[in-house]
Design a protein that fits this description.
single chain, 361 residues, alpha+beta, 2 domains, 5-stranded mixed sheet, 14 strands, binds zinc ion
Amino acid sequence: MKSLKIRLELNNKQKTLALKHAGVARHAYNWGLDVCNKAFENKEKRPTGIDLHKKLVAEVKSKYDWYYEVSKCAPQQALRDLDTGFQRFFKKVSKYPKFKKKGRKDSFYLEGNIEVKKNRIKLPHFGWIKLSEKIKDVKNIKNVSISRQADFWFVSFKMEHQTQKIRFKKHSFVGVDLGIKTLATLSNGMTFENRRPYKIYKRKLKIEQRKLSKKFQKGKKEQSKNYYKQQKIVAKLHYKIACIREDALHKLTSYLSKNHEKIAIEDLNVKGMSKNHKLSSAILDGGFYEFRRQLTYKCEWYGSKLVVVNRFFASSKICSNCGHKKENLTLKDRVYHCEKCGLRIDRDLNASVNLAKQVVS
Ligand SMILES: [Zn+2]
């Protein structure tokens, strides 16, 4: 069993419904926490998740219409979560449960008739929802949890993965160098470029962000209507860019995992990179984590092997021909020139070949 987390593309109606579910889950959780707090004050036994749910159905639900607009799983699981929270507190694993605030870690749970077809998922109460990526038909999903990060909603569930074994060509090893200008350079000479719309939207985003900061009024609690309008424009652009980037990464990770027995990538430590601001933002922006996430599960699907090479391995400094290490290589050097054997090679290609060599041996 492994778990998968995928972004949902909700329409407006579904978004409203998701907010309602998250709202009910939060309300039930906070109500339950209040009941438990009072029980402690009165030196009574703490009610369990089941006790709380019974009490909720008997005393609370009928007071609020919106409880009937959502799946009964949402409040039920929220109370179960609260129960787990208390158990963890008494085992000294976590802190005392806190009240949940609106908009912070919104989430809820659903179970029942769930289906997945290519890039759609069917959920109780919601019907068919578009997924941001295609997944293989998965059966027997019993429950899902839905959560929100910024303006994006995600679905998570556990699935049994069946490996679709591909017969790879023998010795089909490949090294991948992720870059700033080029999305990826492969040791077989192939390159994956950042797509044009991506660049166009990136430029647009800069302009719109500048407009936003001009509209910001310092020291004011409430900003102008125009400010919030502009904020929406910026958020939409962020979303578009994220979609384009994800799409490009899917093409890359599918190609890699379907055609190679072993794939070598570098373990880029973003924290260590932050000294070099330009490079680190490019790595974050290029979605290194997203790249690795996709590649990891696709390698499992197709039966290829992902090798993550130690980040102290100097893939760009070593000559892929003779092994000489060039200490004075700077980021500006786009071409690697080896003083020892005379090799002249694109810097990223040199790095990817070095990575590929790591899986051959
Ligand atoms: Zn050399």
